[in-house]
Amino acid sequence: MNQVETGIPKPLPVLEGLAGEFYGYCKNGELRFQRCRDCRSWRHVPREMCAECGSWEWEWERSSGRGRVFTWTVVARALHPAFQEACPYAPVVIEMEEGVRILSQVTDCSPDELEIDMAVEVVFEDANEDVTLPKFRRGTS
Amino acid sequence: MDEACIVGIGETAYVRKPGSGLSALGIQLQAAVRAIEDAGLEGSQIDGIMPFPNLGHAESFAANLGCENLRFQSIVWMGGAAPVASLRVAGAAVQQGLADYVLIPAGWNGYSGSRARQTVAEDVSSLPGGAIARDFYLPFGFTAPPQWYSVMARRHMHEFGTRPEQLGCIAVAMRKHAQRNPNAVMKGRAMTLEDYMASPMLADPYRLFDCCLETDGAAAVVVTTPERARDLGKEPVFIMGAASGQPRPADEITNRKDIFQTGLSLAAPEAFGRAGVSPGDVDFAQIYDCFTFEVLQQLEEAGFCKRGEGGAFVEGGRIELGGELPVNTHGGLLSEAHVLGMNHIVEAVRQLRGDAGERQVADAEIGVVTGWGDFGDGSIAILRRA
Predict the structure, then answer these.
(1) What's the CA gap between A41 and A37, in Å, rounded?
(2) String of DSSP letters for B170-197
(3) Which of A93, A114, B2, B332 is a plausible cystine mate for B289, CB 3.0–4.6 Å?
């Protein structure tokens, strides 16, 4: 629990609608993405309908939790006061085995150890008693 | 085929300390009045106004300017792509008779008021796609535009071998140009590539000198038809072709199949097609330079060079005054001022009027101006002199 570092709380998702459902699964220790029932394509972030085929039919399907580092940045100077003490830290874009990409962090790796295509797997980190964030650690490739 | 023309330009002083001393509306009105005067018009004659998203209402401008009949107003919700996209909408509006004279203002106290860097963090949900950023970016510390865009820069470096020194060439070129611009905030403050490389990291690979300024300033233009421009007795600058576009998806930056696609990737071919010219015909380009890599990326996506070749393209002075394609002859957002790209339009008009003084591009006939906003929205206008 490191929600408060500077006295300013870190921003958290609003647990409503599809985003609320996504984070609800995270709270249960499951990373799930929407998957179209018709064309079977995966999607993230959550959407009302399938942009590939137009279908409204979808389900929350469990991800393998495995992915690879696609790109990242290293924040050396925070542009949000809540992240000042966390610097330097790296927001990382991870490409999941399912093909969708998710923005997160790799928790067991310093920013200068990151590499493109590095294998990672999901872990869950409680931000507070209501919100659990999906983060990543080094995985086996 | 000319779509419409720009008949008036106006700018305020561009400053940091101690600030403009004007209100958020007042500074934009000062630029607007100058643009209207430059066009040879009265405020009462302005009958169309296109404010910048979140920076004012057409009604407030009209009430101050004494507009007699505000019959057209519209806001293009494309962030920094809005001013150039508004040229296209304003052009269509005057051609269709929705208005005779459309004022497009933009400006802010980005230094003395709420800092430019704070505007997104304060209320990210006000952006198109802002709820996505709120729920899926901000909780992970991915909170602001330089961070959002820098992940594309890193991927470009990985795929094409683009180097930090090449981003530095862009920053240095803008700074050189600012030395020839008395209204540039960075006039008198030269920068070398060594200075650039020594500047502190902000969002790696973005250093401080990859990032646009925070300044107080406003600029404005007036758009009308070629027929009305003739009656005003001033040489207009013609909008040969303009277009705007959105990447897919427009509201989320990490899940594009083509991570380098921007709105400009689609808008540029449309605009060049409408104008009937190609990138090789262009004498200068004012490219929205929120950050250095976005200049490189837009040069590629607009077709000035192939994708992956932007790094080599910006080297060797090619984008400097005297080079093959001078870029941001005023110094841009990086070294003149952050006036939301409206200063790029004003500078393009000034160049095509031959009024750019010691930074004039010799015999400039055709110029390009682009906009970039939000999560990669794009806009482009191809302008020509009378």
Answers:
(1) 8
(2) HHHHHHHHHTT-TT-TTTT----HHHHH
(3) B332
Give DSSP secondary structure letters for B285-302: EE---SBHHHHHHHHHHT
pLDDT at A3: 46
Residue A11: its chain B contacts at CB < 8 A? Answer: 134, 138-139, 143
| Closest-CA distance of chain B to residue A140, Å | 22
Sorted by sequence, the CB contacts under 8 Å of residue B3 that are 6+ apart come out as B88, B91, B92, B95, B238, B239, B240, B241, B242, B274
Inter-chain residue contact B201 with A91, CB threshold 8 Å:
no
- Put simply, the answer to whether B203 touches A104 (Cβ < 8 Å) is no
Residue B270 CB contacts under 8 Å (≥ 6 apart), including other chains: B241, B243, B245
Q: Is A93 helix (H, G, I), strand (E, B) or coil?
A: strand
CA distance B322 to A104: 45
Structure token pair of residue B142: 């991915």
Q: Which of B136, B144, B200 sits opposite A80 (nearest CB)?
A: B144
Closest by Cβ to B135, choosing from A13, A71, A101 = A13
CA distance B114 to B110: 6
Residue B203 CA, distance from chain mean position: 22
For chain B, which domains are there?
4-384 (3.40.47.10)
Neighbours of B40 (CB within 10 A): 15
Distance CA B136, CA B372 (A): 22
In this predicted model, what pLDDT tens digit does every residue of A43-86 receive, in sequence order?
Answer: 999 999 999 999 999 999 999 999 999 999 999 999 999 999 99
Write out pLDDT tens, residues A116-139.
999 999 999 999 999 999 999 999
Whole-number Å distance between alpha carbons of B309 and A84: 36
- C-alpha to C-alpha distance for B177 and B191, rounded to whole angstroms: 11
Residue B57 to chain A, least CA–CA distance (Å): 28
